[in-house]
Amino acid sequence: MCLFSYAEDPDPDEQAPAGLLFVPVRTQAAGPVLRVFRTPLGERTAVGFSRRDLLTATLGAGQPAIPLAEAALRALTEPLGIDRLVVDPVLTARAVGTRPVYAAEPADAPVRAL
After folding, report:
1. 49 bridge partner residues
2. What does the buried/exposed string (b/e) look like for 7-38 if buried means 16 or more CB atoms within 10 Å of the residue's CB?
3. pLDDT digits (tens, 9 = 90+) for 55-79
């Protein structure tokens, strides 16, 4: 006889709908453009946040966002070949700079012409 009831235990692979998400965008002259991110392995992914304060904590206060339903976000990214959606990520990397930084140079070293 089993002492535990598994009737209400959700399958870990079963995903519940995320509902309304705050989705990071870039502002362009034609309107907002969806930002697409990459996973640590390089796979393109859409990102959404369940609360605005989580978006601000991860991407900063200046990050514009629009509210979208999960289904709408998936519909926008599907034609781009993006089928992954990450909700409430907590880690992000800084944007790649245009000038290489060398560990051997001190921060106050003069810039040398190449």
Report:
1. 22
2. eeeeeeeeeeebeebbbbbeeeeeeeebeebe
3. 999 998 999 999 999 999 999 999 9
pTM of the entire predicted model = 0.65
Q: Extract the tokens encoding 28.
A: 């362009």
Which segments within the chain are labelled E, that is strand? 20-28, 31-34, 37-38, 44-48, 65-69, 85-87
| Cβ-based neighbours of 56, under 8 Å, separated by 6 or more | 63
Site of tokens 């200046």 = 62
CB 23 within 8 A of CB 46: yes
Q: From 38, 30, 45, select the one nearest 80 (Cα to Cα).
A: 45
The number of beta carbons lying within 10 Å of the beta carbon of residue 68 is 19
